[in-house]
């Protein structure tokens, strides 16, 4: 099986906004539909890779004329989220679940992804602030799901995705510091991603 760096949407452009560490091979200990349904929340729930992709793309579109540097960053981060989405889709299928853009409610009803899940915003600063909040929410969800899953391969995948999300928080905080410093609230940054190595992986 090809590893995650040899297939799909992994491109040199992706690595500009990804944490510089290898992605693990996509595999599972055994088929487990319950885990597959759990990962659907990260894949296409309210706080999910699908929501992040659509939110960052929208922010990219509306900011491009006035803030081209920020728009480029948002497009770049969106590529990383697309890779997360792809890895989750492949994993969900290995677990025995169809990766449609939906989750299952507590009453076992399907709830499909909805465009109302994303934050559209009014200006640069409220959009980037919400993008930071969305990344923190994603990290929290992944941490909770790690605790619920007894599969070392899934835990490893989620941990690697978390590193990307923490790196995105760092990148978005840099935008806030450059353009929105008076509005930037104090935040504990002790849980951000570790410093990357000097060179990205080959």
Structure, explained:
The protein has 202 residues and is an all-alpha fold. The radius of gyration is 17 Å and the shape is globular. It contains six helices and two strands, in the order ααααββαα. It has a two-stranded antiparallel sheet. The longest helix has 28 residues, at 152-179. A hairpin with a 5-residue loop joins strand 1 and strand 2. Helix 2 (33-44) runs antiparallel to helix 4, helix 4 (68-94) packs antiparallel against helix 6 and helix 5 runs antiparallel to helix 6. It starts with 11 loop residues before the first helix and ends in a 23-residue tail after the last helix. The chain has a single domain (30-179), classed as Ferritin, core subunit, four-helix bundle (Ferritin), CATH 1.20.1260.10. The chain is 55% helix and 3% strand. InterPro entries: Ferritin-like, Ferritin-like_SF, Mn_catalase. Ca(2+) binds at residue 72. This is Manganese containing catalase. Its cofactor is Ca(2+); Mn(2+). It comes from Sporotomaculum syntrophicum.
């Amino acid at each position: 099986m090809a590893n995650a760096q040899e297939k799909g949407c992994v491109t040199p452009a992706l690595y500009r906004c990804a944490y510089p560490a290898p992605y693990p091979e996509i595999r599972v200990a055994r088929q487990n539909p319950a885990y597959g349904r759990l990962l659907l929340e990260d894949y296409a729930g309210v706080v999910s890779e699908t929501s992040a992709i659509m939110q960052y793309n929208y922010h990219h579109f509306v900011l491009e004329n006035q803030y081209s540097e920020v728009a480029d960053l948002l497009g770049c981060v969106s590529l990383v989220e697309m890779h997360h989405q792809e890895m989750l889709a492949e994993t969900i299928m290995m677990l025995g679940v169809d990766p449609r853009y939906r989750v299952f409610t507590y009453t076992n009803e399907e709830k499909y992804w909805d465009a109302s899940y994303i934050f559209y915003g009014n200006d640069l600063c409220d959009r980037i602030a919400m993008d930071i909040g969305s990344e923190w929410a994603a990290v929290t969800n992944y941490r909770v799901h790690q605790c619920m899953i007894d599969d070392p391969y899934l835990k490893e995948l989620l941990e690697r995705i978390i590193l990307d999300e923490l790196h995105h928080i760092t990148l978005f905080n840099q935008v806030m510091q450059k353009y929105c410093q008076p509005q930037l609230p104090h935040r504990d940054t002790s849980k951000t991603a570790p410093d990357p190595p000097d060179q990205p992986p080959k």
